[in-house]
Amino acid sequence: MATGGVALSLKEFHVMGDTRRAFTAEYKSQAVGFVLDDDRTLAEVARNIGCHEYTLGKWVKKEREARDRARADQPVSESERAELIRLRSEKKTDAATIAQLEMQVAFAKKVAAWFANEQR
C-alpha cells in the first residue's frame, strides 16, 4: 500500500475461518512514524494505510511508552533542570492565585445571595 509517497509492505495470512491480518514490524514502525514524526493524525494515517484506528492507536501508544522510557533513562541537562525549577515555581504561584480567585468568587456569590434576599 502507498501512503504519502512511501510504500508499506503488508504481510497477510489467513487461517481457516479467520480473516486477521498480520503486519510486519517494519510496517508498524513506518505507520507509527507517520503519526509521531510527520505530525499526521491517527485517523488520516489509519485510513491511508487501510487499518483500523484502534489498531494503529495501540501501536502508537506502545511506541510513545517506549520513547518515554528511553527519555527517562537519560540524565536531565542543566537547561532542563532550570526549566523544571522555573515551572515548579510558576505552578505554586498559579495554585495560590487560583485559590485566591476561588475565594473571591465564593464571597461574591454569598454577597449576591445576601442582596437577593434583601430585595424580597
Q: For the record, give the distance between the C-alpha atoms at the N and C termini, rounded to a whole number.
A: 74 Å
How much of the sequence lies in strands comes to under 5%
Shape: elongated
Task: Indicate the structural class.
Answer: mainly alpha
DSSP helical segment count = 4
What is the topology, as strand order, of the major beta sheet?
1-2
What is the second-level CATH architecture of the largest domain?
Answer: Orthogonal Bundle
CATH topology of the largest domain: Arc Repressor Mutant, subunit A
Query: What is the helical fraction, as a range of percent?
Result: 55-70%
> How would you state the average pLDDT, rounded?
85
Radius of gyration: 26 Å
Which properties best describe this structure?
120 residues, mainly alpha, single chain, Arc Repressor Mutant, subunit A, 2 domains, two-stranded antiparallel ribbon
What does this structure look like?
Helix 1 crosses helix 3 and helix 2 packs across helix 3 (53-72). The chain has two domains: 1-74, Arc Repressor Mutant, subunit A (Orthogonal Bundle), CATH 1.10.10; 77-120. It has 120 residues and is mainly α. The protein has four helices and two strands, in the order ββαααα. The chain is 68% helix and 3% strand. The mean pLDDT is 85. The longest helix has 42 residues, at 78-119. 10% of the residues are buried.
